[in-house]
TrEMBL record:
One of its GO terms (cellular component) is plasma membrane. Its main location: membrane. This is Probable membrane transporter protein. It comes from Actinomadura geliboluensis. It comes from the Bacteria. Belongs to the 4-toluene sulfonate uptake permease (TSUP) (TC 2.A.102) family.
Amino acid sequence: MALGSFLVAIIVGLTGMGGGALMTPMLVTFFGVSPLAAVSSDLVAAAVMKPVGSAVHYRQGTINMRLVGWLCAGSVPAAFSGVLLAKALGHGDSVEDLISKAMGVALMIAAIGLVLRAYLAHRGRAGGAGDETPEVTVRPVPTVLIGIVGGLVVGITSVGSGSLIIVALLALYPTLKANQLVGTDLLQAVPLVFAAAIGHLLFGDFRMEVTAALLVGSIPGVYLGSKVSSRAPGGLIRRVLALVLVASSLKMFRVGAVPLAWTMVVLTAATVAAWLVLRRRPSPAAVAEPAGLTRAESPAAR
């Protein structure tokens, strides 16, 4: 369990995603933990794990503090309310199944969007793909709404503090750099997960032995992943993020562990192969304007 949480925590630190979407299914599928106990124990562990990753990003300056503030204004009260709602709904299997499938669709769409964005950037038709620091204009009302929806989902299922909210941020703020996206999401998840964890400690099925095992692996894992994320190129993080989105999406559709593993192996191999092919093939902009020539001086213009 500690080794599994270490691997999941690396993904969380690297991409800001995968905590609830991967950790909770891992506990239920591989270790036979009941769903409610898995949700409660995972959230309490995440309340300790998330600050470690966010502290690394804070020191590296990859966090938009205004975004964090507006997100938390909606997510913190909504997360605690989500726990109360889950208690009022009882087991809520049909509700959780509906939310899981809706998230699966959203995550898959986001993964496809990331792939298309990377391809268009290579073709020289997408702006903002470089490593320059973008100007981000914060939109308070939709940002608070993202926090409310994300907080409710996290309180009910433990899934969404990274996956759902990071997808919404990506859609709302497309010019935000990848490492800023991850850092901002990790920090806003700290008070969000704390609120949900307190609710589950009071009303859930918290199991100390499960949480302890998760913390043994997750603290070093999220630290390692965050160190890599805060220094890694944006393009690399986007590729990893797309794979995590696909994995989380398939998990929401309850794809089995073995098919999921083989699917990710095939997708990873295909991603590497496509990257090698595109790397050897220059973009149209590079062909039309060789290094050192202006558009008027290029061979095509002549």
